[in-house]
Amino acid sequence: MNVPLLDLHPQMTLFRDQILDAVTSVIDSTRYILGSEVSGFEEEVAAYCGTRFGVGVSSGTDALLVSLMALGIGPGDLVLTTPYTFFATMGSILRVGARPVFADIEPGTMNIDPGEVERILEADRAGQQRIRAMLPVHLFGQCADMGRLLQLADRYRIPVIEDAAQAIGAQFPLVEDTSVTWKRAGAMGTLGCFSFFPSKNLGGIGDGGMVVTSDAELDRILRSCRNHGAEPKYYHARIGGNFRLDPIQAVVLSIKLPHLEEWHRARRRNAGLYRELFSRAGLTDNPVVLPAEAYRDVKGADNANYHIYNQFVIRVPERDALRRFLQDNGIGCEIYYPLCLHQQACLEPLGYGSQSFPVAEQAARESLALPIFPELQQEQIAYVVDKISEFF
Ligand SMILES: *Cc1c(COP(=O)(O)O)cnc(C)c1O
């Protein structure tokens, strides 16, 4: 049996005619930059997330970049983030001339550890006070502990940029006045960043991204930053770049957005089936550690996207041997991520490599992502678990 890590054909086939019509109408209109398609999609995403504004940009990476630019972060500034994420999280910090400061992750969710964040912010306050923002990542589709992170951001008076590239629509149980409100990823911090890279839960037919916010002033600055810092046209009080979302991507994403909830449900159903089969095979906890679902027992979780499973990441010793075995048996799987950010060669001149973040480093040695896309068949999931069983 062949089980790809991700198969985009089912969605492409389902929307092919609609997409061709919508793209054709953009082509026929000859309006190829921004316009009503982009602003319409921005409003749809903002409404979905529960923010006042959405600003369409060219990628998730550029969403992070314009967010840092809009907050005026640059040389001499530090940004607190996780060492265990996709490179773009840190790349955007370095590109504005700032430096990352890493806080190790929690072993369960593999998201940034609020205890570490507090320790580092406290030390920064007692010292140079250079940390200008917090950039947590909602890894694999589950929110970082935003309750505690927002409290700390508030206490130390720094803005929070959520890297929600893998988590559009994921929800976190925020306690407000003693009652729990399930808030969407991206809508809790100062700014929230999404990616529409084809492998994300909401994927375009190319690159795309968005920043959401409820701050009108930041919305205005973001719009200017994505368009060379112009405000109005041809007047540049600041330096931005060309970071605009393409209307062709916007119309495709508008067609797909109404189906996003149903795809989240399908991904969660697949995750549930993995759990059941792994447990039946007697593999859970040892040797296979299943992804933690940190918020599944909180009030209201039954109706909430406490995990949207952009990736279903198990942890195993002998990860590399298992990966080869699965690939030899026609099963697609991937390592997210083989190196932590502080271990990347491009940081070598900056000397981060000598730092150590033991929890993140262990995650990088043990993590393996299995197929989880919405259209995955039950037999395929059963086959994956059978093969893992056979391996052990
Ligand atoms: C995908 C991703 C990005 C970057 O998004 P692009 O659209 O590919 O530029 C940033 N951060 C994380 C955590 C991601 O997974």
CATH superfamily of the largest domain: Type I PLP-dependent aspartate aminotransferase-like (Major domain)
Give the CATH topology of the largest domain: Aspartate Aminotransferase, domain 2
The number of distinct structural domains comes to 2
Biggest sheet architecture: 4 strands, mixed
Give the second-level CATH assignment, the architecture of the largest domain. Answer: 3-Layer(aba) Sandwich
Bound molecules: pyridoxal-5'-phosphate
Q: Structural class of the helices, strands and pairings?
A: alpha/beta
Helices and strands in order:
Layout: H1 9-29, H2 36-49, E1 53-57, H3 60-70, E2 78-81, H4 87-95, E3 99-102, H5 114-126, E4 131-135, H6 146-156, E5 161-163, E6 171-176, E7 179-184, E8 191-195, E9 209-213, H7 216-225, H8 247-256, H9 260-280, E10 312-315, H10 319-328, H11 358-366, E11 367-370, H12 378-391
Parallel strand pairs: 2-3, 2-4, 5-8
Antiparallel strand pairs: 1-9, 6-7, 8-9, 10-11
The structure holds pyridoxal-5'-phosphate.
